[in-house]
């Protein structure tokens, strides 16, 4: 149904964006659809208003009783103008706490309206309605959320809906900042601040929208093209129109209704009612007017029906309000006289927000303006309080804020340390790592890399290499090969030895993720080139350790146990200790790896012993002829190195003997097979005479034959 409706709302936005067939949320009269730009692949939310929603339902009040169709048409036109004003106000008002407009308002062929904004998860009204349904069904644990949305590529996923205390405090602070901007900088009053006017974006930030009734407040001195709203018209509820396009009296201040005064403080009264709705059960305003002015006035004529501290703001005792909220903050918001209310600036300074987590969020919001010393101290201290944060806040708020600061190379290392710490503890760490962290890593280390030495960038690269196990566990093979492997190879070719060393160590976690072809054609040539040209003994040893792994050695080093290379039991040991990564084929080992080993010029014992480990693996892969002609002479030469001690020399001799034994056994077997073939041929020509002469029957054997058979079956 919605897909057909979208097709009728043809516009530039619908032509440039892939729009989900079903709305993900609603905000007043707007349906909100997830969308993605077809060319730029930028995510967005498309707000759609269908004029058919203004048509009275059958059996409802028609236009005849209110002055005919002309009067109804005029009312519809006024609604359309207000909705246009809502979108145009978003274009003029640019602030982090105001919903960000991405595509301006467009009128569609059927008279509808459409505009695009930053990606939003849902309106606060939708989230609270969902919480009501969950609580009616026995709480969040009583049933799974039905709030499932379909992406533009057809995939479906479940939204995260839980709104905990920190989310509320963070969101209210953001609303306070937005109201401060509206009241003091823009000189405007929102005038209809309700849960439908609060949008939660993809990062979990609360954004102000719903500006259809926004206008200058009575004490405004700011220049604006907006005209003050007519309270007499805005407060007059029209039963022919949906409530979603009219001022919501349940969240309206008495300044408007009783005093006919357009005060900025009216928004703070509405904010107090919105706060109560967050904790109420059901999650609605403590004032219920049914859209009737007379009901509103009747409520405010009696102290018992007005939400106050004495009656717990009309919230059920089964849903207690936080103590500081009930005793200190709400009494300064939900109060009859505007002069007694907190301003938007004072609201943000309330003691209700005094805790370490909220202070951390505040610092994050102001992070770009902090000094380098303050940023560094913050990064050092963040791991201590990270376990206290809800995982959803880590993913939606803290992680994106840190990633945005990765442009500061001096902070790159501490930022990445914190990023990996978050990935480890977040249940959605794998999703977050692949979708937001990996693209940022590629941007920092590949896209914006510089030929000049950058110590800050190298420090960040070291952190990535040290956390390569986390990266490999959270990044599928294809994405790892395309996005992270280039960074690893860049580190291998770094002029800084510490980075190269860390990159070699990280190979233990890199190799199991990659396929054989990638290892052979992309990774091995880089490792080989670094090994061949380095003058660092430590890098030489790291390179040999990499060859050991590439030739099938175990990352745990268990393959170093004595092995007589007879082929018995080796497979069992390797299967128990191997990391499961692909290894190089025999041709590459013989034609590429061994020549590199033969080219080693240093006689340093550390390098010699590391090469010995590689040769032990080569002995399990290479042909006997190759071992005899190419490997053993090299081993003899190395074993006589003047710097080796007795134990090291004996280790070389042990491998030389084992390889010699393997060569002897295999060559003996070949000769025996050849001898048996020749003997069979001779038997075919004259075997009958020999058997007769020997005195044995058809089943008889000579002693030589018995010896050959025993040698054959015993190997």
Automatic annotation (TrEMBL):
Organism of origin: Baudoinia panamericana (strain UAMH 10762)
Superkingdom, taxonomy of origin: Eukaryota
Matches recorded under SMART domains: S_TKc
Location of the Protein kinase domain: 1-353
InterPro entries: ARM-like, ARM-type_fold, CIK-Related_Protein, Kinase-like_dom_sf, Prot_kinase_dom
Pfam families (UniProt xref): Pkinase
One term of GO molecular function: ATP binding
Listed name of the protein: Protein kinase domain-containing protein
């Amino acid at each position: 149904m919605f897909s057909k409706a979208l097709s009728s709302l043809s516009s530039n936005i619908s032509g440039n964006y892939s729009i989900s067939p079903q709305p993900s949320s609603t905000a007043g009269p707007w349906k909100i659809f997830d969308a993605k730009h077809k060319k730029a692949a930028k995510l967005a939310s498309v707000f759609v208003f269908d004029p058919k929603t203004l048509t009275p339902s059958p059996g409802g009040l028609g236009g005849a009783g209110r002055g005919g169709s002309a009067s109804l048409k005029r009312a519809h036109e006024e609604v359309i103008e207000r909705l246009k004003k809502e979108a145009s106000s978003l274009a003029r008002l640019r602030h982090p706490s105001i919903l960000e407009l991405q595509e301006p308002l467009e009128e569609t062929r059927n008279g509808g309206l459409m505009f695009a904004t930053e990606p939003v998860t849902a309106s606060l009204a939708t989230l609270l309605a969902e919480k009501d349904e969950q609580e009616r069904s026995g709480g969040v644990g009583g049933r799974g959320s039905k709030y499932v949305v379909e992406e533009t590529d057809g995939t479906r996923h479940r939204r995260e809906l839980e709104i905990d205390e920190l989310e509320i405090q963070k969101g209210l602070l953001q609303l306070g900042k937005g109201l401060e901007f509206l009241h003091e900088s823009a000189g405007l009053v929102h005038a209809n601040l309700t849960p439908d006017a609060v949008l939660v974006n993809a990062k979990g930030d609360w954004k102000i929208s719903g500006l259809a009734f926004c206008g200058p407040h009575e004490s405004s001195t700011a220049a604006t093209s907006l005209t003050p709203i007519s309270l007499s018209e805005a407060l007059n509820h029209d039963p022919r129109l949906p409530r979603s396009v009219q001022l919501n009296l349940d969240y309206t201040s008495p300044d408007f209704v009783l005093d006919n005064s357009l005060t900025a403080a009216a928004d703070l009264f509405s904010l107090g009612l919105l706060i109560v709705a967050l904790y109420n059960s059901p999650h609605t305003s403590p004032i219920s007017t049914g859209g009737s002015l007379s009901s509103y006035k009747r409520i405010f004529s009696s102290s018992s029906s007005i939400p106050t501290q004495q009656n717990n703001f009309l919230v059920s005792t089964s849903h207690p309000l936080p103590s500081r909220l009930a005793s200190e903050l709400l009494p300064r918001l939900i109060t009859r006289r505007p002069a007694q209310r907190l301003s938007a600036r004072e609201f943000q300074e309330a003691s209700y927000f005094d805790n370490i987590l909220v202070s951390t969020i505040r610092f994050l919001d102001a992070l770009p303006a902090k000094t380098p010393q303050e940023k560094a101290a913050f990064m050092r201290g963040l791991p201590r309080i990270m376990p206290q944060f809800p995982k959803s806040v880590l993913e939606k708020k803290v992680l994106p804020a840190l990633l945005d600061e990765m442009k500061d190379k001096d902070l790159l290392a501490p930022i990445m340390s914190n990023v990996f710490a978050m990935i480890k503890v977040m249940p959605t760490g794998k999703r977050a790592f692949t979708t937001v962290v990996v693209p940022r890593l590629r941007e920092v280390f590949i896209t914006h890399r510089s030929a000049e030495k950058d110590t800050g960038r190298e420090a960040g690269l070291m952190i990535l290499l040290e956390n390569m196990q986390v990266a490999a566990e959270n990044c599928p093979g294809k994405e790892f090969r395309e996005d992270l492997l280039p960074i690893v190879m860049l580190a291998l070719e770094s002029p800084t030895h510490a980075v190269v060393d860390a990159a070699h160590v990280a190979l233990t976690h890199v190799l199991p993720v990659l396929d054989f072809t990638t290892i052979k054609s992309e990774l091995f040539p880089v490792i080989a080139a670094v090994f061949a040209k380095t003058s660092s003994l430590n890098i030489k040893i790291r390179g040999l350790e990499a060859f050991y792994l590439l030739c099938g050695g175990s990352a745990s080093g268990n393959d170093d146990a004595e092995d007589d290379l007879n082929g018995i039991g080796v497979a069992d040991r390797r299967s128990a200790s191997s990391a499961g990564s692909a290894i190089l084929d025999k041709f590459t080992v013989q034609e590429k790896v061994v020549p590199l080993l033969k080219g080693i010029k240093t006689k340093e014992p550390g390098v010699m012993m590391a090469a010995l480990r590689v040769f032990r693996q080569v002995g399990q892969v290479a042909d006997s002829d190759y071992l005899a002609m190419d490997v053993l002479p090299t081993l003899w030469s190395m074993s006589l190195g003047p710097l080796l001690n007795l134990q090291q020399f004996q280790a070389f001799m042990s491998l030389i003997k084992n390889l010699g034994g393997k060569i002897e056994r295999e060559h003996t077997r070949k000769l025996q097979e050849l001898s048996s073939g020749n003997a069979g041929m001779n038997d075919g020509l004259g075997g009958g005479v020999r058997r007769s002469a020997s005195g044995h029957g058809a089943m008889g054997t000579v002693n030589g034959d018995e010896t050959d058979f025993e040698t054959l079956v015993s190997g």
